[in-house]
């Protein structure tokens, strides 16, 4: 697939699917735009847009486009019918504006999410990910995936790429948006044309969002009374981003709207939207190995990957209000201790049972807390769990601090949400 300039004559790696026949796809390049962020990030961004049409006789589902490195095979007698990509990259046909070879820059091209200029949130324009474009995911798992290649070449399919959500019927088209960044530091010119070789797969992951509806009330800490929602109509978007090497992907885990009468409509992300998830279960030492923290949590399936929602930030009437799933009739306060039966939403990519305790103290710079999971059984998909929360005020040499204690179980999930004011 050609990213920028020229006409793009690179040979595409033949597509072979994971769960069905090889998709017959037609690619049409519609537009190319660029964004120069050399002054801030030493990077020149490319946004290339294609129309993809299913020209076959069978529907194709959840297409994934995986950048692929090709090399000549080890048999010198085998004729090579296509030029391999440059080095260990998925790129070929790199050219400067004058048509000269630009292969030296192949290692400095980084594929990823399409980028855009954000002029709304910041005092000065800032380049950010464009979440409305085709999603780019890392940590994609395709065990046993094979792709056909031209004679004389071998292929190494990457574990990152762009994912399309949904089904394309025969004759139906969709838009694919590819993003790339070219390093500008140290070079006097940048490539005008480059092709990226893509292998194409599809899968059967669910594209259905999980709905959740509930009323929202307000709790007044001063008077200890519950009243109707006064925040007006609003909305929320739950973003989950893991900046460590464990999971570099960014997810919109849920979207929500709330009516002026306080009725919450929550839509939890589908299995396909959460593809590439690599953050393991709560309390796993791999992800929770922090100073001042200890864990005994284990999972019946250590491969399980999860994502957690325990609150929503509702934006409306010019402010933002944090709401949590909680039973208003469970609120109890006594001598510096607060008790509430709240809820926890956990997405799991496979079934598993969690047991153990995860706790942190002041040594790691955290407010003290303890989370206990006792025989918590997770199914594949979204799980609605009970979180019995106790907040106790501790007196320490450093002053008074709250101790959060959470007991997670398969108990009932609250049927209402609360805003504490």
TrEMBL record:
Residues 1-11 have a biased composition (Gly residues). Residues 76-90 have a biased composition (Low complexity). Residues 1-20, 66-91 are annotated as: Disordered. This is Uncharacterized protein. It comes from Deinococcus carri.
């Amino acid at each position: 697939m050609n990213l920028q300039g020229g006409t793009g004559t690179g040979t595409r790696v033949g597509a072979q699917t994971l769960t069905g026949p090889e998709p017959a796809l037609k690619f049409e390049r519609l537009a190319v735009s660029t964004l120069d962020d050399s002054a801030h990030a030493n990077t020149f961004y490319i946004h290339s847009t294609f129309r993809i049409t299913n020209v076959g006789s069978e529907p194709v589902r959840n297409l994934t486009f995986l950048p692929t490195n090709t090399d000549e095979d080890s048999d010198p007698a085998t004729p090579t019918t296509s030029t391999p990509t440059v080095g260990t990259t998925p790129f070929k046909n790199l050219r400067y504006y004058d048509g000269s070879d630009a292969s030296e820059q192949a290692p400095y091209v980084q594929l990823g999410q399409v980028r855009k200029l954000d002029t709304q949130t910041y005092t000065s324009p800032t380049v950010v990910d464009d979440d409305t474009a085709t999603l780019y995911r890392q940590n994609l798992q395709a065990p046993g995936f094979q792709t056909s290649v031209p004679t004389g070449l071998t292929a190494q399919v990457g574990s990152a790429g762009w994912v399309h959500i949904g089904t394309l019927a025969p004759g139906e088209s969709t838009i694919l948006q590819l993003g790339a960044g070219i390093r500008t530091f140290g070079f006097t010119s940048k490539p005008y044309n480059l092709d990226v070789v893509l292998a194409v797969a599809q899968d059967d992951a669910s594209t259905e969002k999980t709905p959740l509806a509930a009323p929202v009330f307000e709790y007044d800490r001063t008077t200890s009374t519950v009243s109707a929602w006064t925040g007006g109509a609003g909305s929320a978007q739950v973003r989950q981003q893991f900046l460590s090497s464990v999971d570099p992907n960014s997810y919109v885990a849920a979207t929500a709207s709330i009516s002026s009468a306080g009725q919450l409509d929550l839509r939890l992300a589908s299995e396909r939207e959460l593809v590439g998830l690599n953050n393991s279960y709560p309390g796993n030492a791999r992800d929770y190995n922090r100073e001042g923290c200890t864990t005994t949590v284990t999972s019946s399936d250590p491969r399980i990957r999860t994502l957690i929602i325990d609150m929503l930030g509702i934006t409306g009437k010019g402010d933002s209000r944090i709401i949590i799933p909680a039973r208003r009739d469970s609120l109890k306060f006594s001598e510096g201790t607060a008790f509430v039966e709240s809820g926890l939403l956990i997405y799991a990519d496979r079934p598993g049972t969690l047991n153990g305790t995860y706790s942190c103290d002041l040594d790691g710079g955290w407010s003290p807390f303890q989370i206990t999971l006792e025989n918590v059984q997770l199914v594949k998909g979204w799980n609605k769990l009970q979180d019995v929360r106790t907040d106790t005020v501790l007196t320490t040499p450093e002053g008074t601090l709250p101790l959060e204690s959470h007991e997670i179980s398969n108990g009932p999930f609250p049927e209402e949400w609360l805003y504490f004011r």
